[in-house]
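Model: Ready when you are.
Researcher: Fold this.
Model:
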Amino acid sequence: MKVLVLNCGSSSIKYKLYDMAGEKVLAQGGVERIGLDEAFIKVKLDNGESKKIMADLPTHKEGVALVFKVLLDPEIGSLKSVDEIDAVGHRIVQGGDLFEKSCLVTPEVEVGIESLIDLAPVHNAGHLRGIRAVGTLMPNVPQVVVFDNAFHSTMPDYAYLYAVPYELYKKYHVRRYGFHSTSHRYVSHRVCEFLGEDITKKRIITCHIGNGASMAAVKYGKVIDTSMGLTPLAGLMMGSRSGDIDPSAVTYLMDKLGKAPQEMADFLNKESGMLGITGISSDMREIEAAEAAGDERAILGMKMYSYRIKKYIGAYAAAMGGVDIIVWTAGVGENQASLRITACEGLDFLGIKMDAERNNCRGVEKVISADDSKVKVVLIPTDEEIVIARDTRDLVEAKK
């Protein structure tokens, strides 16, 4: 079975084509600037290089059609016919409390996703455009949706509810949903496979640390808490997102800066976090270089960043009655060795002891804690796309 995985944003489409017989990646790339000038597709070639192709892409339909065209290209493509694609899987950011697991696309599912646009206006609208574009171009190919909050749906109500009038939850669905759940799901299961452990017997803290960052407490295979909330703004300090902040500080700043609600949301999402504190960048590589050069605000930003991760490790260990495994993943978590050391410093009382030499690595599956550490600290590169591809295959095959 060949499965095409799509992640459609408001003006972009990331894609990856799998041959599920060996879970081999046949093609991958991304379409950018849909509906804008100078739209293009960037294709990753077999030799590791990329090829950029400019195109006129007024809508997602043309964007998806371009993906198909590239897949069929005799020089850089990997298919002879689009009929070789057996199914298409989509990442959906917000499933709200309507969807607790992956499912086949039906008219009713589309209506459900559309009803949640208010909770993720940019993302869900883009996902729907992608689903409908595929439906128009390939009406007989089954499609599957995998929700970015689904793995977190096992959280108990006392963990996901906010302390606002209960009627607001019932009427407006205001609650903690969490995100990155496909990544948290993958690495929590994969780390147990890697270590030869049974996930139903382990207490795991998963640290998905990228430009967007979140953590989850996975107790015996089920999420009991996660750091992001109704939106991806809550929780950890991130590249350009503030993370946790006093709500009254938000209204205070709105008054002082004269910002409307959406302007303030944009400010906290795009101008805050590490970018706001350091004044340098939202890119941790640039900030790490500035920290090494002695930049005081870069040093401050890194202290704030690692401190918040450490606080969540302590909180989730308390919530689960201890911790057996800590997993680091995503762009920063997989590649910034110094952060992993700093965030785990002083946690000996929890049984966490790092090995600096083992930790001096990036992007590999590896135990990075000391031999005498009671808690296994492990680096596991994430693979959200393969989770989507597997769910797509399983649901399509189950329907046959």
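Researcher: Now this one.
Model:
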Amino acid sequence: MTSVEAIAAVPFIDGIVYGEGPRWHGDRLWFTDGLAGRVYSAGAAGDLAVEVELARASGLGWLPDGTLVVSTLFSAELHHADAHGNVTAGYDLSDIAWSTNDLLVAPDGRTYLDLYIADGRGLTGGIGLVAPDGAVRIVATGLSMPNGLGLLPDESTLVVSETHGSRLLAFTVGPDGNLGTPTVFADLGPDRHPDGLCVDTAGGVWVGSYDTGEFLRVVAGGEITHRIEIDRGWAVAPALGGPDGRTLYLVVDETSHEDLLAGKSTGRILQARVDVPGLGSP
């Protein structure tokens, strides 16, 4: 059994409400604070800038032309914003989902998007595929709360956190963007519930296990190679970035399910150094 390497994290940014969706883009760390209704970016020194004002902002990505794509939580919406922070288009997806959450923009501009669907008995999960013009179709169903999304280095495998399934799933991506039948990339065991994720150049996946307070690096088959324990709060989402791609940014939120629904949370971002750099998306 290979030992798990422990890594220590240090503070980076304090004073946000509920951070989500971190992405390294244009030499800055971008992330959402949905409860504050903002999309932020931060330089390597921690200087903050408000990039977009948008209620319930959650997931982030960029189309090939630089258009920012933002999804929402607790409502099913997708928004496009320009370089000046102006929302240029909004898409209402409430006919197919109760809420959206994280998203991933593939290199060709297709957007994969979490869908949470209320069927009268509870929530089921799906994945939507959104064209740059906002046209959407559902490409996966029957998931137990899909969450973080990432493409492996081959760009033909989509890895998805299944939060209530306690595992990461892998889908083969077809030429038309459709997803094949999922396989289990990593089973994290019943006590861990994966949230946001990011992928490194070796095909390892960093994922937040939000309610066990740890960020894990896992590889195909489920082996955990590295672990970062946090002292308090939910381990929500990681992102690899920095000038050399080897800074791991860790979004941590102190809240509960009840407080989150009531808009109560205290968020912060930590950082740590790792050996294997990120792919850049996400």
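Researcher: Key takeaway?
Model: The first helix runs from residue 257 to 261.
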